[in-house]
């Protein structure tokens, strides 16, 4: 996987499979500490303590189609390659938070990639779920909240209408403030 955005797509897929209705994605950097941090939080079914412990192991999966689960181990590997780490905070019945940290300037740190396209894909593919996105990268803040957008739309336009998706994508284009 070339970009962190593709890892994020994978981790969000775990959240949708866990029955989440709200998925939060936060990406921020701390230039002073040379850190990049990605947090993906969901309100899905969560995991018990044993599962959290085993989840970084690629042979731990509840998939029935394939026996090896790679989403979490691959993101952990991407973080560790930079001297960072991956943390999973989860509680059965409550939800899950996956936090990956990277040494931002590390030569092996993958680029964030196209988060506009990633978020657009997620919203188009999951129009019944809510997403909250916030990033603060290179001094530019971007915020998307589908609950808020839904509130602003009139009932005849759905969240996955191409016009709405294009507006969301536009937020990610440099120098467009709205
Ligand atoms: N957000 C989550 N909520 C509840 N369970 C989760 C969550 N994320 C992961 N899991 C559990 O951990 C297992 C391993 O996840 P991982 O992404 O590493 O592999 P996978 O989803 O099984 O397979 P792959 O990602 O390769 O398609 C999942 O099968 C699931 O049981
Ligand atoms: Mg997965």
From TrEMBL:
Keywords: ATP-binding, Nucleotide-binding. The keyword Nucleotide-binding applies. Its EC number is 2.7.13.3. It catalyses: ATP + protein L-histidine = ADP + protein N-phospho-L-histidine. InterPro entries: HATPase_C_sf, HATPase_dom, His_kinase_dom, Sig_transdc_His_kin-like_C. One of its GO terms (molecular function) is ATP binding. Residues 1-106 form the Histidine kinase domain. It holds the Pfam family HATPase_c. SUPFAM superfamilies: ATPase domain of HSP90 chaperone/DNA topoisomerase II/histidine kinase. This is histidine kinase. It comes from Candidatus Desulfacyla euxinica.
């Amino acid at each position: 996987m070339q970009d962190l955005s593709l890892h994020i797509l994978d981790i969000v897929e775990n959240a949708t499979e866990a029955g989440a209705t709200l998925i939060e994605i936060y990406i921020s950097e701390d230039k002073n500490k040379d850190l990049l941090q990605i947090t993906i939080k969901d309100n899905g079914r969560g995991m018990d303590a044993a599962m959290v412990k085993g989840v970084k192991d690629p042979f731990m999966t509840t998939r029935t189609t394939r026996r090896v689960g790679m989403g979490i181990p691959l993101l952990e590997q991407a973080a560790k390659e930079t001297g960072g780490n991956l943390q999973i905070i989860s509680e059965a019945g409550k939800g899950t938070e996956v936090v990956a940290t990277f040494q931002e300037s590390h030569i092996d740190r993958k680029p964030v990639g196209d988060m506009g396209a990633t978020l657009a894909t997620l919203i188009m593919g999951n129009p019944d779920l809510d997403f909250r996105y916030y990033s603060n990268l290179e001094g530019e803040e971007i915020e998307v909240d589908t609950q808020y957008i839904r509130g602003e739309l009139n009932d005849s336009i759905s969240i996955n209408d191409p016009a709405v998706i294009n507006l969301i994508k536009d937020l990610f284009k440099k120098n467009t403030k709205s």
